[in-house]
Amino acid sequence: MAQLVIRNLSKKFHIHNKEITALDNINLSINEGTFVTIVGKSGCGKTTLLKILCGLEEKTYGEITTNCKNIGIVFQEPRLMPWLTVEENMQFSLLERNHEQKYLVEKYLKLLDLYSFKDAYPSQISGGMAQRVSLGRTLCYNPDIILMDEPLGALDAFNRRKLQKEIIDLFLREKKTIIFVTHDVEEATFLGQRIVALDQGRMIKDISNNLEYIRKINDIDFLNIKEEILNAILRDVQG
Ligand SMILES: Nc1ncnc2c1ncn2[C@@H]1O[C@H](COP(=O)(O)OP(=O)(O)OP(=O)(O)O)[C@@H](O)[C@H]1O
């Protein structure tokens, strides 16, 4: 059964007298426990879609229905509190500090390889670690759906691949629904079981990617899927 259904979703912004269509009639039905990547070039509406899904932005038209209680979001920048330690940052979203919650924080500190840095402050850890803390903070909130807005965009290639693999491990372990936004077609193909491409607010491609994790970026099947997405986006650019 679909956990999240988006029907005829549109979003228009107005700047002075100019109307910008950020999202144009998006229809998407996402099943529980699916890893979806949303890919497209800058300005195609990816962030607007995530913001509407988590209530940070109002939609103009359309309907969103979901049976989930919690939606969590991980941003491109870790947005950690500099005066709190790694552990305290991870606890930040918890409403209660009971035994079960404490267990969750410990679990994710260990899973995300942060345990030995739990008493460090954000200024004392690397960018990749800070992004893992940000991911851990969202996981501790125990969301049914995790939205990720280019969470690895600021990382170097090595750390980016490392974190991609960690996110896949977490996905396989926790089976949560993930909606991951990126402008990188290779990243979208590496991560997504379903890849949705946007251009100028429109959905131009929606394909399944059944390749087994961890994917090999030079395998012919991987390259074919990547090429299909890339061509759809480029065709749209060329009109
Ligand atoms: N608050 C806003 N006010 C006016 N226009 C906006 C606002 N937010 C987004 N837009 C416009 O909506 C369109 C889609 O923006 P959005 O940020 O969703 O794109 P994106 O695909 O996430 O881009 P990027 O990859 O660069 O983050 C763009 O034309 C942008 O200028």
Automatic annotation (TrEMBL):
Q: Which InterPro entries match?
A: AAA+_ATPase (IPR003593), ABC_transporter-like_ATP-bd (IPR003439), ABC_transporter-like_CS (IPR017871), ABC_transporter_ATP-bind (IPR050166), P-loop_NTPase (IPR027417)
Q: Which UniProt keywords apply?
A: ATP-binding, Nucleotide-binding, Transport
- A GO molecular-function annotation: ATP hydrolysis activity
Q: Can you give the residue ranges of the ABC transporter domain?
A: 4-225
- Which Pfam families does the record match to this protein? ABC_tran (PF00005)
Q: Does the keyword S-adenosyl-L-methionine apply?
A: no
| Origin superkingdom | Bacteria
* Gene3D superfamilies found in the cross-reference section: P-loop containing nucleotide triphosphate hydrolases
Q: List the PANTHER family.
A: ALIPHATIC SULFONATES IMPORT ATP-BINDING PROTEIN SSUB, TAURINE IMPORT ATP-BINDING PROTEIN-RELATED
**Entry protein name:** Sulfonate transport system ATP-binding protein
Q: Which organism is it from?
A: Marinisporobacter balticus
